[in-house]
Sequence to fold (184 residues):
Amino acid sequence: MVFCGKCGKDNPMGAKFCENCGATLEGPTSQQPQTTYASGNWLSREHAGFLPRFVAWIIDLIIFGVIGWIVSIPFGTNYGYGYGMGYDAGFNLGGIGTAITALISLAYYVYLDGMQGATIGKRVMKLKVIGTNGAMPIGPVPGFIRWLIKAIPILNLVAYIFILFDSQKQGLHDKIANTFVVKE
Fold:
């Protein structure tokens, strides 16, 4: 395969021009990792501001509200429906439902942000998480760091306030994990 330095597409061996953008190819080079795109391809994109990122976060929050509610029912940790009215359900194992929901959240963010480049909310808003070096997807470690910061409520609030005032539109979680959120 011949890697196009302009758009990041892998082209067949012997190709003189990129099938995607038409750029002249310089000949065979070592094959680039499948998960990393050319730096200019993602780093040149406009950074997403507060509002589209906030809407994406709300979408993900709704998804987790439903998941948390479903997971909590069999463990007796759901107090949203019928609390104090004799509608107690489950085995009242308390924190187990919370722990399971946290693990599902961890898997969701690390896999989707870290390994796929966007959560469902970000996909709806047409956003991608990229590394400050242009890598996309960013990998599981930066995905975990982003999740960890956002899992702590006060840090999540601070993270989103950072977006409003940062010239690169990075939240606290972006700065620590060396990531940007860009528009597709």
The chain has two domains: 1-32, 50-183.
